[in-house]
Specification:
216 residues, alpha/beta, Methyltransferase, Methionine Synthase (B12-binding Domains), Chain A, domain 1, Rossmann fold, 2 domains
Length: 216
């Protein structure tokens, strides 16, 4: 298979969530010389963006998002030797993500993590019930460009504001872009707490991050 076909078929397999085709492509990418990692990542990103559009239109559901997120995560793991070569040549962007204090829901957060990993980010997942202090500590230690917070319960969304306030108090707020998501928040809440962006679902996270960082 020629290189251009591999990139296009990867994108189409992601959009159509063709798991069998993706399994084949995982091997073909490794067996094909002169793979352009940038084109590989771009077609993953583009495919996931289309999946997000279909999700918004009601064509796909959460189960499909979980499935494609898992498939891409497995592909990235298999392609790690290729991606490591790219990382060696350039600074890897990092993202810190977590569900805020008092909340243990993590499906959406986990999918966001997988999708960011698939486009080349090093994702530091702090897990669930993450305090503001833990977010601050991670930002200090890991120097991410993105911090992502999730809150499903309305009783826990104040954890987002507490974390943003803590980042400001520690002189870190201007060093990162902060995105939020989850059933307890919306775009108005994001503006109220001065977050940089809001994604209504996991599929929107990649284009949102791309927009905030001016392209990946």
């Amino acid at each position: 298979m020629v290189l251009s076909d591999i990139y296009q078929e990867l994108r189409e397999a992601i959009i159509k969530i063709e798991t069998n085709k993706l399994e084949t492509l995982k091997e073909e990418v490794l067996e094909t010389p002169d793979i352009d990692v940038d084109k590989l990542v771009e077609n993953i990103r583009s495919g996931l963006e289309e999946v997000g559009i279909k999700f918004e239109a009601g064509e796909y559901y959460l189960a499909e998002l979980i499935l494609i997120g898992t498939e891409i995560s497995e592909a990235v793991e298999k392609w790690k030797p290729l991606l490591e070569k790219k990382k060696a040549k350039e600074k890897v962007r990092k993202a810190v993500i977590g569900t805020v204090e008092g909340d243990i829901h993590d499906i959406g957060k986990n999918i966001v993590g997988m999708m960011l990993t698939s486009i080349g980010f090093e994702v530091i997942d702090l897990g669930n019930d993450v305090t503001a202090d833990k977010f601050v500590e991670a930002v200090k230690e890991k120097s991410p460009v993105i911090v992502g917070m999730s809150a499903l319960l309305s009783t826990t969304r104040d954890g987002i504001k507490k974390t943003l306030d803590a980042l400001k108090e520690n002189g870190l707020r201007d060093k990162v872009k902060v995105i939020i998501g989850g059933a307890a928040v919306d775009d108005d809440f994001a503006k109220t707490v001065d977050a940089d962006g809001y994604a209504s679902n996991a599929a929107e996270a990649v284009p949102l991050v791309e927009k905030l960082l001016g392209g990946l």
